[in-house]
Amino acid sequence: MNRPENLKQLQDSTKIWDIAVIGGGSSGLGVALDAISRGLSVVLFDKSDFAKGTSSRSTKLVHGGVRYLAQGDVGLVFEALKERGKLLQNAPHLAHDQPFIIPIYTWKDRMMYSVGLKVYDWMSGRLSLGKSEFISIEETLKRLPGLKAEGLYGGVVYHDGQFDDARLALNLAQSADEAGTCVLNYVSVTSLVKNEAGKLTGLRVSDKLSKEKYVVNAKMVVNATGVFADKILQMDNPEASRMIQPSQGIHLVLDLDFLGGKDALMIPETKDGRVLFAVPWHGKLVVGTTDTLREKPKLEPEALQKEIDFVLETAAGYLAKVPTRADVKSVFAGLRPLARPKEGSTKTKEISRSHKVILSDSGLVTLTGGKWTTFRKMGEDTVEYFTKVTGEKLKESKSLDMKIHGATNHVPAGHWGIYGFDAKPIQDLTKENKAWEEKLHPEFPNIEAEVIWAVREEMAVKVEDVLARRIRMLFLDAQAAIDTAPTVAKLMATEMGKEVEWIESELADFNRTASKYLIKK
Q1: pLDDT given at position 344
Q2: Which of 100, 166, 284, 359 is least surrounded, with the fewest CB atoms within 10 Å of its CB?
Q3: Which residue spans traverse the membrane (predicted)?
């Protein structure tokens, strides 16, 4: 992806794009993927970096939703299980099978979860990742050596998917870019353009780096901004009522030895009715999540002290080695863009995780709700509105079977796996400069060549882009990321032709952001 080249495409004021997408997270990228599968021309803007918001802050699971099955939302589970199976086929370098174990403490729980998960298996059909089964106390503790043995009756194993969310977003942007989509980060939409009849004809946008302004013509405009959807809706109609209810979820990152093994732990019901996961991810253990209503969306939300305490206390009830605040390597918070409920309901677990597509009087198409697992179906359902908005016939969607950038049947070993077929070209960069073989941090496998690749091929323009979303160090160990930032800044500055002032400014910005991922002891 080449940002300057993509910006040049905006200079043609006569060009009319089929679809202009606002938002470069899972929703917007799902729209772009489906649109290109139908041969439509697409331009996509994100006011920050791809997946900077909610889409890089998930529990890293591609799942059907065991909890939704318990709530009776069978349709959503069927849809999600199908999408889960196809994603593992289309992006095998990023998404893979993850065995989960539910600890069992009573005979009643054994029956309930065994039967429920057999239904989950059946619903997966030919896209199943493996059969669920009950295992003994001994087998449970062998597979989860960090689990408390007290009162344990056994465990139920089931299978779901795991993935790297920000890397998937990036690879989706690359897939779209390769198909002719104009994808751009750090370009904000400043206003909507309408004709005399009040119908949308395009957007006014501003490059946040150069301050250059552009007018973009489009037959259909899609608002796929997640928790920020209300801002675009009110840009379209100042009287529009709020449609999004932000719900905050946080995750704490611990050393893997708190759980041990390769299996994930799933606690289906905590004391307040939430689900808690402890999932191995990139050599660490991600523990979460919470579900806390927030009134205002933020691009960089912060974990509340009560949320941190809740996760630590709940984890302590199941782990033999009790985690403390001092053990937390990183804490990150994300906001779910839930559809605002009708009067009365305030419990977030009662708010549907299904997505909705809304068509405004102006022709603005807004995608709300949903989750990462169903991003492709969300995109397909949104693009279906193209005919309603334009009157033009639409080709059939082919996104269900589209391979995503990096997909390979021979996934590289170790941390190189997430790059898929790009791993070899990155390693080959060290022939250009042997110094790029050096590790960025002694405790992480990433090398300097990955920073160069991120700038040249992955549209990284800020230190945070690299350390948070190209390689995931900020999410895995915030202090390690802070220690690594000067090296990354110097490498980027040399590659991009930046001065010392840029390095100083970037490091100040990054340290300000990264401090929010450090837990106060």
Answers
A1: 45
A2: 359
A3: none
